[in-house]
Amino acid sequence: MAEICSSYPTSGGLYYWSAMLAGPNWAPFASWLTGWFSILLAMHWFNIVGQWAVTTSVDFSLAQLIQVIILLGTGGKNGGGYTASKYVVIAIHGGILLLHAFINSLPIAWLSLFGQLAALWNLVGVFVLMILIPTVATETASPKFVFTYFNTDNSEGISSKVYIFVLGLLMSQYTLTGYDASAHMTEETKSADINGPKGIISAIGISILVGWGYLLGITFAVTDIPSLLNEDNDAGGYAIAEVFYLAFKRRYGSGAGGIICLGVVAVAIFFCGMSSITSNSRMAYAFSRDGAMPLSSLWHKVNKQEVPINAVWLSAFIAFCMALTSLGSLVAFQAMVSIATIGLYIAYALPIFFRITLARKSFTPGPFNLGRYGVLIGWIAVLWVATISVLFSLPVSYPITDQTLNYTPVAVGGLLLLTVSSWIFSARHWFKGPITNINN
């Protein structure tokens, strides 16, 4: 993706790339499909839906964490602490989205400042937590437990270690998304054909290294898995919060230090949600600029500071509406996380697929390129996405009921059907693909 970004640095990102790489005959359909998978779920519809769903899940997770911090701060579940209702959590979620929309409405210079602060906070915060938590813990797990233990005695009815490993990949894939965020900001970036790819590569590289260290630090502090997952523990079953809380409570008699650590995590998630709205709004702006969204003329307007203000608030509103599914069933909401992950990865794979097939001979590399290894790495990426799309459609709990069924295949298939149908019956008559705004 960094290689393609270097060749086509534009805020349209994935769906623009698909159009350029698919060739003139397939460009409109390729960009339509990629765009809606990207903004609604993940190909522009694939991509844009996926981005909205990711924003929803990030900010809703933050809302849940805030209610856990409140619970622990008021004495914990066993101490009569305050447990927020699902309606309060939704209200917190709405407040977070309002703040994110407000920040993203500020001039680019301010948004850049927040971005730099976010990078510093994440880097320093993670290093502090990965060292502090296992140091404070009175008991630590052995390396054998950390690297080889599988929780086969769980409430999900899954005892296969291989199956548990496969399901565990979802969290890694979910975390390592947003590869296209740098691309969506390239029209507001100097030397975009160089700095855009640098942003993609550096963000992922840092996330892998720092994230791995963070996970190790936390996992070494885990000694009693059943108690962490018990909904009657002080954190109400929120495992990471319980790890932080108990580490300090057992050593100092108070879990206040753990609550502060959770605050560090909460701020990091807040910055993540802020960046997600930034990416969403630029994607919606680019898609509507090409007339591919309802009321397109409204969403691609920019204010005096060149900020797509309407697209910003649209993204926040849709993210809030998506979270309303949690009021009916958390199963439906949790399925959306899986859907967002698969949807986004499908959107990521589409331009790569076009680059290694239709555009294999015509692709003109930019300053950043993979040379002769580009096609090989591209095929590995496409095959990996195909693999995880199957894995993440598998049941995550047994026995299978209406509450445990994995609805991901239904949702993704439904979106694909909707996107293709809208193309056949409507968009193919008027949608001509993205507007060219760079020299190729």
UniProtKB/TrEMBL annotation:
<feature type="transmembrane region" description="Helical">
    <location>
        <begin position="26"/>
        <end position="46"/>
    </location>
</feature>
<comment type="similarity">
    <text>Belongs to the amino acid-polyamine-organocation (APC) superfamily. Amino acid/choline transporter (ACT) (TC 2.A.3.4) family.</text>
</comment>
<feature type="transmembrane region" description="Helical">
    <location>
        <begin position="87"/>
        <end position="111"/>
    </location>
</feature>
<dbReference type="GO" id="GO:0015185">
    <property type="term" value="F:gamma-aminobutyric acid transmembrane transporter activity"/>
</dbReference>
<dbReference type="InterPro" id="IPR002293">
    <property type="entry name" value="AA/rel_permease1"/>
</dbReference>
<protein>
    <recommendedName>
        <fullName>Amino-acid permease BAT1 homolog</fullName>
    </recommendedName>
</protein>
<feature type="transmembrane region" description="Helical">
    <location>
        <begin position="311"/>
        <end position="333"/>
    </location>
</feature>
<dbReference type="GO" id="GO:0016020">
    <property type="term" value="C:membrane"/>
</dbReference>
<feature type="transmembrane region" description="Helical">
    <location>
        <begin position="370"/>
        <end position="394"/>
    </location>
</feature>
<feature type="transmembrane region" description="Helical">
    <location>
        <begin position="118"/>
        <end position="138"/>
    </location>
</feature>
<keyword id="KW-1133">Transmembrane helix</keyword>
<keyword id="KW-0813">Transport</keyword>
<dbReference type="Pfam" id="PF13520">
    <property type="entry name" value="AA_permease_2"/>
</dbReference>
<dbReference type="GO" id="GO:0015189">
    <property type="term" value="F:L-lysine transmembrane transporter activity"/>
</dbReference>
<feature type="transmembrane region" description="Helical">
    <location>
        <begin position="58"/>
        <end position="75"/>
    </location>
</feature>
<feature type="transmembrane region" description="Helical">
    <location>
        <begin position="339"/>
        <end position="358"/>
    </location>
</feature>
<keyword id="KW-0029">Amino-acid transport</keyword>
<keyword id="KW-0812">Transmembrane</keyword>
<keyword id="KW-0472">Membrane</keyword>
<feature type="transmembrane region" description="Helical">
    <location>
        <begin position="200"/>
        <end position="222"/>
    </location>
</feature>
<feature type="transmembrane region" description="Helical">
    <location>
        <begin position="158"/>
        <end position="179"/>
    </location>
</feature>
<dbReference type="GO" id="GO:0005313">
    <property type="term" value="F:L-glutamate transmembrane transporter activity"/>
</dbReference>
<dbReference type="GO" id="GO:0015180">
    <property type="term" value="F:L-alanine transmembrane transporter activity"/>
</dbReference>
<feature type="transmembrane region" description="Helical">
    <location>
        <begin position="406"/>
        <end position="425"/>
    </location>
</feature>
<feature type="transmembrane region" description="Helical">
    <location>
        <begin position="252"/>
        <end position="273"/>
    </location>
</feature>
